[in-house]
Design brief:
Blueprint: E1 11-14, H1 16-27, H2 31-44, E2 45-49, H3 53-66, H4 70-81, E3 86-89, E4 104-107
Parallel strand pairs: 1-2, 3-4
Length: 111
């Protein structure tokens, strides 16, 4: 969880992030993941971008280039739009989002 308090790191996202992450982690009783999301949403997010047609168009490009599906492509497109250098996820490293080359995609457990 040190990544959350790194003074040299800004954390960015979209309004879809909580929708996708919290419910799934809660349903599956993933306490470590839920703790991460709780801290993340309470005080860590420094900038968000709206989900709009422009972001959807960028997500389509991500999907075409990586085979990332729907919401994953939206998250990657938002991170790129906001100038992120790194994308941290709980998705398996075998997911298509890890093919993105404009930023480094890392698994939460690898931090």
């Amino acid at each position: 969880m040190a990544v959350l308090y790194d003074p040299n790191r800004d954390i960015v996202g979209t309004s879809l992030l909580a929708l996708e992450t919290v419910g799934h982690a809660s349903f599956n009783n993933r306490s470590l993941e839920l703790e991460f999301y709780r801290k993340f949403f309470e005080s860590i997010v420094t900038e968000q971008t709206d989900v709009n047609e422009g972001l959807v168009a960028e997500a389509m490009l991500v999907s075409k280039a990586t085979d990332a599906h729907g919401i994953d492509a939206l998250h990657i497109a938002a991170a790129v739009k906001l100038g992120a250098h790194e994308f941290i996820t709980s998705e398996k490293a075998t997911k298509p989002m890890f093919r993105e080359t404009r930023l480094k995609v890392r698994h939460l457990d690898d931090l």
